[in-house]
Design a protein that fits this description.
This is Transporter. By secondary structure, this protein is of the alpha+beta class. It is built from 2 helices and 9 strands; from the N terminus they run H-E-E-E-E-E-E-E-E-E-H. The strands form 2 sheets. It has a 7-stranded antiparallel beta sheet, with helices on one face. A two-stranded antiparallel ribbon has the order 6-7. The longest helix has 40 residues.
Length: 170
């Protein structure tokens, strides 16, 4: 390799690195702008009650994310709601608790749940047929969202679907 080819290769590598850095910066800016637009709409999440009844169902898996209902592709980016993480989903008589690793837990009160169903896609995560458990609920601000969870054992979804008294209607 002669020196002219080496210089041309280094220049191309530098231009490519700058282009990639610029694209990443634009993506991060878009993520922050979306979070700013959604912050007022989402408001605050419900507080976890100081005491809850015994857990009826406990399912380990992955918290996929939250989306604006019914748009499965419109991920919520406010706070840490947009980040996937390992989690444990627990059904209590008063509601559902999503305990996430490295993020704040999410409490979903029973009176705000409008349905529980299975999906194959939510928040950009695609799973096998009916591989994601989706919980539709209303925030204190009045906005309806879907919270997605992919269980380690998808056979446990049947218990979750039966735990909702109104069935899976949304």
């Amino acid at each position: 390799m002669n020196s002219e080819t080496l210089v041309a290769s280094l220049i191309m590598a530098g231009v490519l690195a700058l282009l990639i850095a610029f694209i990443i910066q634009l993506m991060l800016r878009g993520w922050r702008k979306r979070a700013e637009r959604q912050a007022e709409l989402i408001g605050t999440l419900p507080d976890i009650p100081t005491q809850v009844g015994p857990a009826a169902i406990t399912t380990p898996g992955i918290y996929v994310g939250c989306t604006m209902a019914p748009a499965w592709s419109q991920r919520i980016t406010v706070g840490d709601l947009g980040y996937r993480s390992k989690a444990v989903l627990t059904r209590h008589p008063e509601g559902i608790l999503v305990q996430r690793v490295g993020a704040q837990p999410i409490w979903i009160p029973n009176d705000s749940i409008s349905g529980i169903r299975t999906e194959h896609v939510i928040a950009g995560k695609v799973a096998a047929r009916d591989g994601i458990l989706a919980i539709r609920w209303k925030l204190p601000s009045g906005v309806k969202i879907d919270t997605g969870f992919r269980a380690d054992n998808r056979g446990e979804y049947k218990g979750w679907l039966q735990s909702w008294p109104e069935g899976v209607a949304l």
